[in-house]
């Protein structure tokens, strides 16, 4: 019996050495989770059960436990490297076979799909054809690397202050080239359907107490008559701006539809019928349509504009158009949203990474390549976005290091070696005793 007990001890010590050696070998493996040997003692049993004073039959390896405690998050600077700080696993698909990993090595393949270093596709919530995030619809995440299409300007929102102490200009009529014919001016870039930039200039002329007019030119030309070469081409659109005796814009302005700049009666105006033009570069220049689709209407929002005793100022300006843009970078938030940044200053959500968690993570089945699969013991995965529920946060540009503690493993290595030697000594001693019995006369 002692031979078998010693053999079971040697076998257990050998298995302990293998597990410890595997931990040490993977001390630098990103996303690796260390294991430990969990041993159990053995006792002989019979139909009537075990005796109270049995000496035992040795030891066996009851389980190889996985320790999913957090590893160190190390910064890499690579935009698509990701680490999970807290609970959860990345979900990857190998041609439909779902696997789970903590190793956040990610990049893109030739088709733009986000893949790990094994070529497995990262799962998440993709975006629809209109750019809307599809919450709850899990699929392969893919980055659009094509240029972002331009967007024509449809709204220009401004907050201005007109100086109430200004006087009516002495020189008339209005001339954009003569600053003495108006009190103040500003300009904003707007974009046509092809992404070409145009300058919308606004000139403010005081007509009397609490009464102003706003003149509008686009590229120095009348937006509705931009093809001409004569002086009429520089005749602006015009709309009246009236203020209360407290300096607030009166929303209900007169409708000036004939000029192409229409009041909506609420402090906003519509620039209707603008056909983008371009100059032929000659002197005098001839302006012709540049081929971009005509813009049906551009909303000009002046709500919040005031007339106070202070210098003319543009307090805020915002327009919603932009030119075409090339992909210039990626940003991933701690909730997993992937933002693409473009050279035109725009950004767009391209998907959201999801994480999976299990009721019993120790029950996951390791399959190599720092991946696990679901098992009956682990339970079914709970899928969600980072920072939701009990799921951890995502750290982009970082990787989670192995959670192996080398100093602890080296001590365990020594202990396993001593156990091996001690069990070998048990066998050696039993052999000596047996030999003594054989040598009896």
From TrEMBL:
**Domain annotation Flagellar basal-body/hook protein C-terminal: ranges:** 395-440
Question: What's in the keyword line of the UniProt record?
Answer: Bacterial flagellum, Cell projection, Cilium, Flagellum
Q: Where is the signal peptide?
A: none
Residue ranges occupied by any Flagellar hook protein FlgE/F/G-like D1 domain in the UniProt entry: 84-124
- Domain named Flagellar basal body rod protein N-terminal: which ranges? 4-33
Where found, per UniProt?
Bacterial flagellum basal body
A single GO BP term for this record reads: bacterial-type flagellum-dependent swarming motility
All residue ranges annotated as the Flagellar hook protein FlgE D2 domain in the record? 161-322
User: Superkingdom, according to UniProt?
Assistant: Bacteria
Q: Which GO terms describe its cellular component?
A: bacterial-type flagellum basal body; bacterial-type flagellum hook; cytosol
Q: Which InterPro entries match?
A: Falgellar_hook_FlgE_sf, Flag_bb_rod_N, Flagellar_FlgE/F/G, Flg_bb/hook_C_dom, FlgE/F/G-like, FlgE_D2, LlgE_F_G-like_D1
What family, per the record? Belongs to the flagella basal body rod proteins family.
Q: What does this protein do?
A: A flexible structure which links the flagellar filament to the drive apparatus in the basal body.
Spell out the protein name for this chain.
Flagellar hook protein FlgE
Source organism per UniProt: Pseudomonas matsuisoli
